[in-house]
Specification:
105 residues, alpha/beta, four-stranded parallel beta sheet, two-stranded antiparallel ribbon
């Protein structure tokens, strides 16, 4: 039986695409990746290679700003995405974004 895995991570980083493609090929995993933003133009000038992506994904609508020394990333639609996907497992790439705390709840 395949386990539905939702992986929540910040941006579509080019170096993660091959890793996520490999994870999606594992027979027992039904992978969907939720990106909190497509990229971060203030910190990264990466190109997004969507044609190389071989897994299901979505990019949540987001608002990014800087408050003092901190980068703040706010999203909407995570609860809807999780309800729609009905994952068995949710994996967050950290705890530094509000969306990660929302996923825990």
């Amino acid at each position: 039986m395949k386990r539905r895995l939702v992986l929540i991570t910040e941006i579509i980083a080019p170096y993660r695409i091959p890793v996520l493609n490999a994870l999606a090929q594992i027979e027992d995993i039904d992978l969907e990746v939720v990106f909190l933003s497509e990229t971060d133009p203030s910190l990264r000038q990466w190109l997004v290679y969507k044609d190389e992506i071989r897994f299901r994904y979505q990019v949540l609508p987001s608002f990014r700003c800087r408050i003092g020394k901190f980068n703040v990333l706010l999203n909407r639609g995570l609860a809807r995405a999780l309800t729609k996907t009905k994952p068995d497992v949710v994996l967050c790439g950290g705890y530094n974004y509000i969306a990660a705390w929302q996923a825990i709840m």
